[in-house]
Design brief:
- With about 625 residues, the protein is an alpha+beta fold.
- It folds into 2 domains: about 170 residues, Penicillin-binding protein 2a (Domain 2); about 325 residues, 3-Layer(aba) Sandwich (Beta-lactamase), CATH 3.40.710.
- It contains 20 helices and 23 strands.
- The strands form 8 sheets. Strands 2, 3, 4, 5 and 10 form a 5-stranded mixed β-sheet that branches. A 5-stranded antiparallel β-sheet has the order 12-11-21-20-19, sandwiched between helices.
- Helix 9 runs antiparallel to helix 19 and helix 13 packs across helix 16.
- The longest helix is centred in the N-terminal third of the chain and has 33 residues.
- It is elongated and about 140 Å long.
- It starts with 5 loop residues before the first helix and ends in a 7-residue tail after the last helix.
- The C terminus is likely disordered.
Length: about 625
């Protein structure tokens, strides 16, 4: 066998090595092209993550205003005192002395905090004080004007300057780590509009995580404000009417356009308590009192207020006549082997239709209930807006106007005439909401059933009631007589008012249980329509739970109209309130002390002493 020369073997090996190098270089080149050209964006993003951090900038939440532009819900600045670590393994003597000085000035304990030591070693931020008051902020900035470790970070948080005022209308805003949104009332309904558009900030950090450069890449857009129909002055009046131990609701409404001028529900709550964590004791107390139920939109027996419906049905169906009809009330009547009592056991004597409504006698309504079916009563109740939602933006109870078909479906039983007699005086299964009563009262006096509205930007929707003008005039005359010589006589001393009203006492249980505790006492109702001199008319509805009678509600109504008169006189002596303009570039904030500040004002203070508020 012929042997190959050594030079041939060397050349062959060199060719193989060269080929291997060519293949290797080609592969590396192709890989570089693949990674650096086709996947350049992907790896660019990965590389930027090594030194860039993105931070969300929360947008200022839109304000909620009353009808004159006064603040009901706004924002206030929260100044956090932050320690910015410098990467040292342990605190220097200068840093220790700095912390001791802060402890003396602010009367807090900082030394020995392991989290602070960790933040210093890892170049992280650590919050020393979560919410500095404006006064304490000034002290810090005055005594430590230029310190590498200290920084003031200012953000905005929701603030309700008047505490519990109009809380069921405003709702509340939850600002926690896991939930940042409106949770009740207008805050929830208009979350998207109030929230605005968040911005973004780009932070450049070194390998230890220390902040080097920060810049805003997207500006935050403030939320749009909401202007409600609430009149803050009237709201304050009704807020002061009810005692803390009273539960119930009060509504003041404009019957011509449906504006809710004031609305309260008791028990109430302070929306500010939801900004941040809530203690267990506070939450347990809330569950016990159930303050989040809006009783102005909840269902209750209408009691004698329903007699307006009963008398209207009697007049429209020609079973009652203004002239010629009268009843003799001896305190009770018998029907079907059962005794039906009047609200006055001694009886009222001989009554004409006007007086019957004025003194709220049961006997005439029983007699009408004998001659009309429950379905006819239900039809007139529905024409006056009872038993169906009013159309307000909030969730509300429907109430209940019973019919024979409803009972067959619900209980699989026939309807009895004795039950119609109970419905005629506002008892039995009948349920209404205070807001429905407000609509009904306004409809009787104006002739139009209006949809309640809570925002000024809502459309005004109304429809004519089908009652004849003669019937409405009769009801209004009877409601006027109630003030002059009936169950609302306590209001007769009010001067310069044109008032129409009806009262009611709603049983919550059988009569022999009323002595067993407050929870078994009847509810008290007052529903009135009135105007003072040349002022716009208003509707006032008051419901007091378990108060025993309507006297308490009537007394509160007198207090309201007295205060309303004083307020009307004051307004007549001074020019009208000008609407405030809310500008997104200069949104008003409130400090914890209640003084109005703006972001620009706070920013100017900090700039003058060497600190800058982040946008």
């Amino acid at each position: 066998m012929k042997r190959l020369p050594p030079t041939y073997l060397v050349k062959n090996r060199l060719r193989l090595i060269g080929l291997f190098i060519i293949i290797l270089c080609t592969s590396i080149g192709l890989a570089l092209v693949y990674f650096q050209i086709y996947h350049a964006d992907t790896f660019r993003k990965h590389s930027r993550r090594n030194f860039l951090r993105y931070e969300k900038i929360t947008s200022p939440r839109g304000a909620i205003l009353d009808r004159h532009g006064r603040l009901l819900a706004t924002n206030r600045p929260v100044a956090r005192l932050v320690w910015r670590g410098t990467g040292k393994k342990k605190l220097s003597n200068d840093q220790l002395e700095l912390l001791r000085s802060i402890e003396r000035v602010l009367n807090i304990s900082l030394l020995g905090d392991n989290d602070l030591l960790e933040a210093e070693g890892r170049c992280k931020e650590y919050t020393l004080i979560e919410d500095l008051s404006f006064e304490r902020l000034g002290i810090i900035m005055e005594q430590f004007p230029a310190c590498a470790n200290l920084a003031v970070v200012t953000t905005a948080t929701r603030y309700y300057p008047h505490g519990t005022v109009a809380s069921h209308i405003l709702g509340y805003f939850r600002d926690t780590e896991h939930h940042r949104a409106g949770t009740l009332g207008l805050e929830k309904l208009f979350e998207e509009q109030l929230r605005g558009q968040p911005g973004a900030r780009e932070n450049m950090v070194n390998s230890c995580g220390k902040l080097l450069i920060s810049r805003e890449v997207e500006a935050a857009q403030a939320g749009r404000p909401l202007q409600t129909t609430i009149d803050f002055d009237l709201q304050l009046i009704v807020e002061r009417l009810m005692d803390e131990e009273q539960d119930g609701a009060i509504i003041v409404m404009d019957p011509l356009c449906g504006d809710i001028l004031a609305m309260i529900s008791r028990p109430t709550f302070d929306p500010n308590m939801f900004i941040g964590p809530i203690s267990i004791d506070t939450w347990e107390q809330c569950k016990r009192k159930r303050p989040f139920i809006n009783r102005a939109l909840s269902s209750y027996p209408p009691a004698s207020l329903f007699k307006l419906v009963t008398m209207a049905a009697g007049l429209e169906e020609n079973v009652v006549f203004e002239q010629g009809t009268c009843w003799n009330c001896t305190g009770s009547i018998e029907y079907g082997g059962r005794i039906y009592h009047c609200n006055r056991r001694a009886g009222h004597g001989t009554l004409d239709p006007y007086t019957a409504l004025a003194v709220s006698c049961n006997i005439p309504c029983y007699e009408i209930g004998k001659r009309l079916s429950v379905d006819i009563l239900a039809r007139y109740a529905q024409q006056l807006g009872l038993g169906s939602p009013t159309g307000i933006l909030f969730a509300e109870g429907r109430g209940l106007i019973p019919t024979a078909a409803w009972k067959r479906k619900k209980f699989r039983q026939s309807w009895w005439k004795g039950e119609t007699m109970q419905v005629a005086i506002g008892q039995s299964y009948t349920l209404v909401t205070p807001l429905q009563i407000a609509r009904m009262t306004g409809a009787i006096c104006t002739g139009s059933l209006v949809r309640p509205r809570i925002l000024l930007e809502e459309s005004i929707d109304k429809q004519p009631v089908t009652l004849s003008p003669r019937t409405r005039k009769f009801l209004m005359k009877s409601m006027s007589q109630m003030i002059k010589r009936g169950t609302g006589y306590a209001l007769s001393s009010l001067t310069d008012f044109e008032l129409y009203a009806k009262t009611g006492t709603a049983q919550t249980t059988i009569l022999n249980r009323e002595t067993q505790g407050k929870k078994f006492l009847p509810h008290g109702w007052f529903a009135g329509y009135g105007s003072y001199k040349n002022n716009q008319p208003i509707v006032l509805v008051i419901l007091i739970e378990n108060t025993g009678s309507s006297r308490v509600a009537t007394a509160l109504a007198k207090k309201f109209f007295t205060e309303y008169k004083k307020q009307a006189e004051k307004k007549a002596q001074k020019p009208p309130i000008e609407n405030h303009t809310i500008r997104s570039s200069q949104t008003t904030f409130l400090s914890s002390g209640g003084k109005e500040k703006t972001l620009k004002e706070i920013d100017a203070v900090l700039t003058n002493i060497g600190q800058k508020i982040p946008d």
